[in-house]
Amino acid sequence: MKKLSVILLMMLSMQALHAVTLRYYPYELKLRHAFNLASMSRRATPGVQVEITIDSITGYGEASMPPYLGESVESVCDFLSKVDPDRLADPFAFEQTGRYLDSIAPGNRAAKAAIDIALHDIASKITGQPWWRLYGLDTSELPFTSYTISNDTPDELRKKLAESEPYKILKVKMGVEGDRELIEFIRRHTDRPICVDVNQGWHSPQEALDNIQWLAQRNVIFIEQPLDKTDMEGHRWLKQRSPLPIIADEAVQTSADIPALADAYHGINIKLMKSGGMHDAYKMAMLAKSLGLKVMIGCMTETSLAVSAAAQLAPLADWVDLDGNLLIANDIFEGMTIVDGRVSLPSSAGIARKTGISE
Ligand code: MG
User: Fold this and answer.
1) Distance of CA 36 from the midpoint of ligand 1 (Å)
2) CA–CA distance, 177 with 151 (Å, rounded to integer)
3) I need a labelling partner for 319 at 20 to 30 A (CA). Which of 192, 311, 339, 354 fits?
4) Is the Cα dihedral 252, 257, 258, 261 positive or negative?
5) Ligand 1 center to residue 58 CA distance, Å?
6) Measured in angstroms, how far is the CA atom of residue 172 from the centroid of ligand 1?
7) CA of residue 54 to ligand 1 center, whole Å
8) 45 C-alpha vs ligand 1 centroid, how far in Å?
9) CA terminus-to-terminus distance, the chain
């Protein structure tokens, strides 16, 4: 008993020896082109940058808050203000840290992702290994990434298509007026395969099926979130009839959501801002695979920091949609790159902040 008390005291004093600081500040992500979705259009995405320093090692994290997630700079900063930095002293304790963060509030997953990414960054820097190596993944042939073309005037669309030239797969937002015309416009310029993201924009399973059958003849790879995320019955009906795979995005947030939707979708789109970071995203990929579901790794509009963190899981993905950093004009990090249209992961540990950039 006495021995146990001594060990406990030693552990407590070791933890107390670590100096931990948590710093955060708003950083708005400026979009290079207006982003037009089924429900809205915007030119910027609110974000918060996070820095956790344990002793002398700083890890970077990021929260990106597209409006549909229901988070804001205020809600993220409010959550972060409640985090006790001393509870983050062990950067490898992802399960315990996750439980601690969940005890503060059940949601706020973009804020939790920022902390999780920063701790993964520190752990990577301590071990001197990139995360794909710590996961034991094979990076010899990573998937092509898709490049999003959102609807616009013909002149702007021609510009966007010219910029998309290095990418082998295009992604198109549908569920907006004129979406078939957009597909036909693109098809007049290129025969590259297209992924379609409807963002819940189609109103009935039959309308979705009609559109999917039309798209199946136009070299489309899959359809993301065709119907409202709550319409499980509609997606089940569609899964049985669709000639193209149906992928859940808005309908799936964390690993806990996956079992219930396995019979309604062919696959899931994993994003760190939904899952609360890399730890649950890894669990999501493994669980989806075990249920026979396809895995897609996506992102929000984010800097190279969060996109590179998501890209560590690219070897587990059937498809990746990691263009969030390419769509912004004020990136402050250097990380994963796209080489010949494929994700390419650096073999160095951690993430590097660009030098000479002010906040
Ligand atoms: Mg989507």
Assistant:
1) 12
2) 9
3) 354
4) negative
5) 32
6) 10
7) 35
8) 16
9) 52
Residue labelled with tokens 């669709």:
242
How far is 97 from 83, CA to CA, in rounded Å? 11
Residue 84 class from Cβ within 10 Å (0-12 exposed, 13-18 middle, 19+ buried)? Answer: exposed
CA of 224 to the centre of ligand 1 (A): 6
Report CA(196)–ligand 1 centroid distance (Å). Answer: 9
Distance 338 CA to ligand 1 centre (A): 20
pTM (2 d.p.): 0.90
pLDDT score, position 34? 72
State phi, psi for 148 to the nearest 5 degrees: -80, 130
pLDDT per residue as tens digits for the range 307-345: 999 999 999 999 999 988 888 899 999 988 888 889 988
39 C-alpha vs ligand 1 centroid, how far in Å?
13
Quick: pLDDT tens for 196-251: 999 999 999 999 999 999 999 999 999 999 999 999 999 999 999 999 999 999 99
**What are the φ and ψ backbone dihedral angles of 113, each rounded to 5 degrees?**
-60, -40
The rounded Å distance from CA 65 to ligand 1 centre is 14
| Among the listed residues 92, 24, 103, 120, the one whose alpha carbon sits nearest the alpha carbon of residue 63 | 24
**What is the 351 CA–ligand 1 centroid distance (Å)?**
26
